[in-house]
Amino acid sequence: MFNGNNFFRSRLGSASPILRRISIKNRLLAAFLITSLLPVLFVAFYSNYKYENSITEKISASTQQVLNELAQNMMRELEQYETLSEAIIINKSIQGALPKFEEMTDFQKNNLRSTLSEELAQQIFRLSNIANVVIFTNEGQPIFDLGFEWYPDIRLDQLTDSVESSSGNASWTYLRTYRGANRIALTRAVYAEDNLNRKLGYIMILIDEKVFSRNTYSHVELGQGSRIYVADKNGFVVSSVAPEIEQGSDYGQNEIFAKLNKEHKNEAFYTQVNDRKTLVVSSYIRSADWELIGLVPHSFLVSELKEMRGNIVFICLLTLMLSGGLAMWIYFSIHSPMRLLLQYANQIRLGQLETKIGNSYPDEMGKLTETIDKMVEQLKLLIFQVESEQQAKRDAELKMLQAQINPHFLFNTLNSLKWSAMMSGNETVRQGIESLSELLRNTILVKEELIPLEMEIDNLLHYATIQRIRYGDSFKLSCAMSDDELYACLVPKFILQPIVENSILHAGNEDGRRVGIRVEGVREGATLKIVIADDGKGFDMNDAQNRKSSSHAKLSGIGIGNVDERIRLHFGAAYGLVTRSAPNEGTETEIKLPILAKEERSDV
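^ that's the sequence the OP posted. Answer follows.
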């Protein structure tokens, strides 16, 4: 089952070694800066983001409302010129003159122009910003020209062509005179009054763009750096009061006009205009198929944020200073006791155990100090115990040295008896005394607990020689190893003798048959297996535990249970001895030991 606490604890624990490479002071500074400065920055950036979005929505909405009102004003302005054009189209003189103008004499044409000037003057001059009115035939011959301005022929052709594709027989577009004057042109086709399918010519009313902008939108200010202009359906500028937005140009064709909603839903959006982030708001003028476009620079929208950003910087710097000061204060509250603790540890290392730090505080450092004080007291006690034990050891060594005189006297005496028996020809007594001497020598003088297997087998053979003096040929002992290298393996002293002794004392039958005892050793991987088997009468395994712990008197004073316990204490529970037996089937004891060479002895 997944344990979240353990998982995160293990993750944090794996990251600790990385942090431990950084000093505590720097860790504390980083922790305080992160935990104090990050929230401030997060709140600041989030507030800035929300404020910017909020102010953008509000200014966008208010700008949209302003542009919609301006669009309504423009449509009312344009309706006046369309009404004027309709009145001129149905004029009787124009309806009669257009079909036969080519057939008129120059005198008749002059009279016609004079007549039209008198008839149209009152209607035309009622609108102050009309720059010119031109009426011409289908072939482009003007029958009336109020202002005598010259226009590019190619533009006139484009204007007449645009009438065919416009809805409502009215095309509004931009036109520039040869003298560079900016005009807004309304072009309409003149149809016969009695036959609307018969086109007689065209009428073009030209409005002064400067006067038009002054009357409709130039007085409106959307904000510092903002601009308003009018574009036709193809994206060309019809009217503008901004110097950088030239009339007749395709200003912002890709950045602005291409992104305007084609369904005229008047949705505001941001774009890059002259490498500046700009809010674009538009309103559709349906009667002229124009777009009234307002450009509000992003810098104006966030101008009020500059003061707030300065305050944020000040707050961040203040937080930085306070966090740094608090971190250093806490650092010194840890560093000072830690420095004293390090000095205390150095004094302990130099053996100055009587020094103490003094009063401690109830924090972790204080508890650590108390723990070290207790450790020092325990160390002083252990040192005293070691010194006492060393003194006792030296006393025991002295006594042992004094006691070695008696064994030497004993061995010399036994040696004298051996030579006496040999001189008298008693070979059995000589061998017994020699074996007893060697066995006692290995028992008393050899202090090592682990001895080579070869020495252990020698001790066993000496023991068997001594037992033959008492039991004669009642048993036969044989020893064999599968590999001569096994003789060099180290084994605990006197592990074979108790088992062989058990076979000598208890394996014999009443019929007096000699008991065969064999000792064999083999290598099994890293394990030395020694088998001691006899062909005696055996015993019931139900009594195995009692027999294992029996305390028969033996020459070594070591029981079989003691052998098993010594092996397990030396090498672990995987090693020891196992005895198997059955009545009339003999007894077999298996000893398992690790293969331990002499040079490995120090590792055990």
